[in-house]
User: Fold these one by one.
Assistant:
Number 1:
Amino acid sequence: MDTVAEPDRDAQNAENADVDAEADTNADGAPAPKAESAPTFASNAPPASATCPSLRNDPAPGPAPVFGLSPDWLLHKGIPIADAMVLSHPEQLDRLRTACPEAATTAVLAGDPCFDRMLAARPYRERFRKAFGVRRGQRLVVLNSTWNPESLFGDGGGADVFPSLLPRLTAELPADEYRVAAVLHPNIWHGHGPGQIRAWLDRALRAGLVLVDPLHDWRQALLAADAVIGDHGSVSYYAAALGLPVLLGAAPAGGGLDPQSPVAQFVGAAPRFDPHAPLAAHLDDLMANHSPLPGPAHLTTSAPGASAALLRALFYRLLDTPEPERPALLEPLRLPPHQRPFATAPLRVLTRVTTDPYVVHLARHADPWYEPAGEGHVHMATPEDTRDPGQLPLTDVLLREAAADDLRFGSPEQWTAEVLARHPHSSLAAYITGPHACTVRTRTGRLLRLTGDPDGLDPGASASALHAWLTAGRTIEEALETGLTVRTGHTTHRVRVTIPTTGAGADMGAGSETGPGTGAESTT
């Protein structure tokens, strides 16, 4: 309860009603509006809007009333409307005593079940990263926005950061070094509609952006993240409480936040996103110089890991019913469905082959507005089902991702031969059949198999590395003998190059003759 009430706006109730008193497990809560009923919940994570309905009386001189803590919210004819007001930290109780002392007697300190679920799921960070398609050596950048005009998403005005930032992130950050995901408040989805949201974000989606389920998977995205760009909403505050580096891309101007609240202190201390700075350097600097802010971690909850027991005890006490003897438990966070990235936008690939030993340095940029900066040669790699088929005659590496036995494309051998015949100026075609392998055909007709580590280099990047290897004057025989060493950012990958046996193109996924990871290494 950290935002200041303003006249003539809509209300946003606090989140965190995550415990089901009947089943002793929590509902799958999210930073979304919930119907309020006794007991009233409060949290140091702010409501996702800095607004509230018009107050019934003209505001008295002095500080503006704070959403959820003022008498207008908590009293009816001078009497508390709730039997119990659940708070997550004593600092909230101190502010409640100041703002509405009549309601202070109803306050109960019971922790934060939403944060407890994240703390319990921390050991599974690597699983969450894999679920969001993060490969070894990649950083996951999570953007998040709450839903008022001063949020990162904004109100459609020219000063909004989000619309211009998303395509910049996917274009400027090398695709094999960064993964970009976005968490949008449910009210953004409901207010505009999923079709409109996806239309607005279409370019970034085609470049590999992941839109995170705002109800079920936003916590997992934070646990998987390396950095967060956000605003004053609860997701940014939870990210800071987890110790993540957070850049503020937007924050309320003037008196939009209670100056005494932890969120206001966080907004005042967090580093600001510079929309004019090169993004990779900006993020590198953020992560290299990051020191977790002590406030969010300390003030999010005063009872870490104990909210389920505290809340259930309160519920049964209010019901005047004996509490069950079995433990009060929170539902664990689910493992999100696997979201393997595959950009359908053309990729500009900057490569450089160095010697002694031979290493292919590679950086792929999805749908950039300008040529990638750096030393080396640039080629284009384009999926066959790109939105702009006019790019296909200009591309050097043609890409297709499908199952090896997909009858629509025949087989990897058939598709690679067909597509190279259709596009005579392309040098190489790659049929990707899984997270670590692809079949490639060169312009000379040679059919090869590229295999890497399942969590290592994307097969499309392996195909571009082979193209760079051949363009630099190296031979297929040398690649067969030594394999390829590929460098993306600070990560080195080993890719095995083999000649498929008859019909091997149909066995390119897991369970093929070399097996996952055979002959492949990845180091950071």
Number 2:
Amino acid sequence: MATFGTLSDRLTETFRNLRKKGQLTPADVDGTVREIRRALLDADVALTVVKEFTGRVRERALGDEVNRALNPAQQVVQIVNEELVGILGGQQRRLQFAKTAPTVIMLAGLQGSGKTTFAGKLAKQLEKEGHTPLLVAADLQRPNAVNQLQVVAQQAGAAIYAPQPGNGTGDPVRVARDGVETARRQQHDVVIIDTAGRLGVDAELMKQAADIRRATDPDEVLFVIDAMIGQDAVNTAKAFQEGVDFTGVVLSKLDGDARGGAALSVASVTGRPIIYASTGEGLDDLEPFHPDRMASRILDLGDILTLIEQAQQAFDEQEAMKVAEKLATESFTLEDFLEQMQQMKKMGSMKKMLGMLPGMGQMKQQLENFDEREIDRTEAIIRSMTPGERRNPKVLNGSRRLRIARGSGMTVTDVNQLVQRFDQAAKMMKTVARGGMPQIPGMGPVAGGHGGGKRGKQQKAKAGSRSGNPAKRAAENSGIAAKAPSAPTGSGFGLGGALPGGDASQPSEADLAQIQKLFGKG
């Protein structure tokens, strides 16, 4: 997650230096806490939050739970992780729906914070969960705000109530009240009210938002805040809390390159939970906020659970069963490969998914250099093939590969590399489907595998003498054969077989004497 990139790098470097120490002293703890304090302040986290956070970390790091730990450095990392979860809200908080429909959700925030876009994202996510949301255009001040919400609603496939054109005309309180009544009549179970924002906190904005809240009595008031706002996040959040009193927070623009201190400040200062995090410009780029998962991402510990959830949403279980069956019967083709790539694209950005893996923060440069368009190029090559060529790549001769390269806008080398990668992947998958261990290119057969038969024989054949003199070669080979044991000697404890001509299965007198000495029976 780009917003926490600098903070994550600083904390990871601090803990890397800490892991080099076998035992922690108070000076080591103080130095670590000092670096954490600097990293948080550089990330625009509120000063009061930083003081409380580092104070708790220092107190726990100097306690008995670290002194008695087998690995004190890991224990300190765990403490920082737990305290990060605490200032991010502790437990995940979901939307609370009304017992009697419709559930009214009011959005508030400054202008440009991303309220309108979030309204469309939330509507699309609620529709996936089986709800029937209605968007209400109550932002009648900002130019073209109503038109923007109409476009977003169309993209999300959601219904919208927009009786006024906006652009400074109309009564937003009346529109919001009528929107709730319209949803009740048309049996929409969720109402999302998009309210007006301002470039800064002012009395008129607060009065209008408070009037809409009184008129609609919302079940949730979500405060949408730009994660790149910096130190001003705390003042803005406090002002909205006093004027409107929101029930939850939405962090937008977490994919930006700012320092992201707002996320670590708002929940702690206001006492209100972060419910959603917006991680991109697309309508699908919305995630429920999990404090524990966000803390793991900041500390470069990965977010495997979110990755699994995204995969479960994107992949069809029946299609997965078909692919598994084709792998078992060795009938996996380039057509199946193309379908798998298309399902992966549904999961979103490959960079984002790779970034959820533990330790990927140390490979930031490789992630930045990763080309998302590589999947599109591969898809173009496969689509330029005929159905017969996709099912049987062995028919691809030189002229066919040249035609495919021209049709896809690629080179013959690109086509050759794709076919080669597919062949290697197919061989590995076939081996796994048969219950064997794959031979990874460049690494040889995996230990314990069954694929090294011929290679082992060749190595055995090459183990003899290479002398050019036949008589000398025969003498050296006979010496090697005499030295090589025909069977393993000795027991599992290294006893037996020590004396020439002795029974390898029984310990010698010297072995027995060593055993007696070991147990104190001289």
